[in-house]
Design brief:
32% of the residues lie in helices and 28% in strands. The chain is of the alpha+beta class and 68 residues long. It has one domain: Alpha-Beta Plaits. A three-stranded antiparallel sheet has the order 1-3-2, with helices on one face. It is globular.
Length: 68
């Protein structure tokens, strides 16, 4: 299991966090998605077959790309 916490500049409210949770949770292998709107931090836990590249691409696709 891998876990990564990233800052997402476009997160402005809990609705943003919920959108990320809904979309990223649909990726096979993603086990949890948590976020805090106030800090713009999103934490994702996953295992195979999911990859960080897939997760990052999905977040970018829904306009919540993680900061580099």
């Amino acid at each position: 299991m891998e876990t990564k916490t990233v800052t997402v500049p476009n997160v402005g409210c809990n609705g943003c966090v919920n959108s990320i949770k809904l979309e990223v949770s649909d990726i096979p292998g993603v086990s949890s998605v948590e976020g805090v709107a106030e800090t713009k931090q999103i934490t994702v836990a996953w295992q195979s077959p999911a990859t960080w590249e897939q997760i990052k691409a999905k977040m970018a696709e829904i306009n919540y790309a993680p900061a580099h």
